[in-house]
Amino acid sequence: MSDQTSLRRLPAVSRLLEHPLLQALRSEFPPTAIAEAVRTVLQAARQRLRQGEAIDAARCDAEDLARQAAEHLQQMARPSLRTVINATGVVLHTNLGRAPLSEAAAQAAYAAARHYVNLEIDLDSGQRSHRQDHVRAALRRISGAESATVVNNCAAATILTLRGVAAGKEVIVSRGQLIEIGGSFRIPEIMAVSGAILREVGTTNITRLSDYERAIGPNTAALMRIHTSNYRIRGFTRQVSIAELVALGRRYNLVVIDDIGSGLAAELNDPGWSDEPTLRGSIAAGADLVLCSGDKLLGGPQAGIILGRSNWIQRLERDPLMRAVRPDKITLAALLATLGHYVDPTRAVTQVPVLAALTMDINCLRERSLRFVDRLRSRHLPADVTIGDDITYAGGGSLPDVPIPTITIAIRPRTMTEAALAARLRTGTPPVVARVADGSLRIDLRTVFPEQEAALADALSNALTGSALNDPPLTDRPMPTVPPPGSGIPAAPPDDDAAEP
Ligand SMILES: *Cc1c(COP(=O)(O)O)cnc(C)c1O
Predict the structure, then answer these.
(1) Is the pTM here over 0.90, yes or no?
(2) Which of 43, 203, 354, 460 stands the most exposed, by the fewest C-beta atoms within 10 Å?
(3) Which residues line ligand 1 (CB under 6 A)?
(4) Measured in angstroms, how far is the CA atom of residue 106 from the centroid of ligand 1?
């Protein structure tokens, strides 16, 4: 049959609109949206026929087309921001929204979102109060700081702090610490935006206390340490400790700012974490102002936390910019509940999902993975499924050189490429993000919540056995990957807002 004949056999828009499947959707969707969907699927069908597909293979009868139009409508109505299953094993995946909240924190956020709250009213006196008071006390308790305040993220915390302390004045920073965190957080640019003048000292690998001291002049306002969150300089290196910087700052009457980034507040005995600065450690060392993120190792909502001396915190809170970067009630509620887990810092490890995922017992993870493999094998899917030791990373610009031994399930599809399988999983319901390495799709249950396992198994079944008709176009964009184990490639774990995946 010529394609002209096939094309003529396609049902008309008006006929499709009368199909019961689409009639039933009239209560949910406006007629214009339904007509639009019908035109879209007809267009696609015409294209398939022109490309030479036979009319039966091209699924072009009224029934098929109506069903496709209904699916298209549902898809268009779906919000673009959705929950996904993170099967990458990267715990703080910036592109997947960093830290998932604890149940308590999520409930607190929900309650605050759904109701009125005493955000800025003192319930005892009826007087106006300050939104920061709610988290200030908790932050003081877990860090030992005199005072604290919270802003939108750590980037905002850095800008606000540098403006308040050093606008028009010099801030001395080691050349080894001029970091770029993804999403265009670069220290020289942040410094410029804040109005402070960056005074670089030392070299990339070596900065001595004398380098800082020699750079101090009449226009110096502060000494700043920036945690090299997402990279490490190895070999012949030397950096000045925060305690040494504090001692120098005291002698010259300079403010010492410590941007610790990842916000570790738990006490962990893991030697791999011993280099990671903590809120309490930095305050105890005497830093005047300590900055960190809320949604990295702290495991809370996106936020920027500023800890330190009361006089400085008060001054920063008076800056008109504070009004532009202040947190909302939902963030504050989630953060307050997260901080509640740290009242007992050893228990935080089990209660904060990010810490629980990072410190998960490998044998438990192996057991869980074995059970999951059994579950997949019992479905007789067209794929080889194996389990093996692997390596993952914290991600999100934290612990870049701490490889975390993990277990992954390798899936080698027999009827499609692993990239096609990954694409189907991403565009399925629920979307699943996994990584691709060495010719297989890798699933790491470390970042999959147990209650998501059934949905993950179904998603894998659907992706491996479903039809190719609705496949997304394969793009060249690589999936988020960490170096394959034994590749010898130094860790460049996914971190950045920009480059990841
Ligand atoms: C992550 C990080 C930032 C930026 O924090 P956001 O909360 O993402 O704005 C700043 N400084 C350091 C040292 C970091 O690790």
Answers:
(1) no
(2) 43
(3) 153-155, 158, 181, 185, 226-227, 229, 259, 261-262, 293, 304, 397
(4) 23
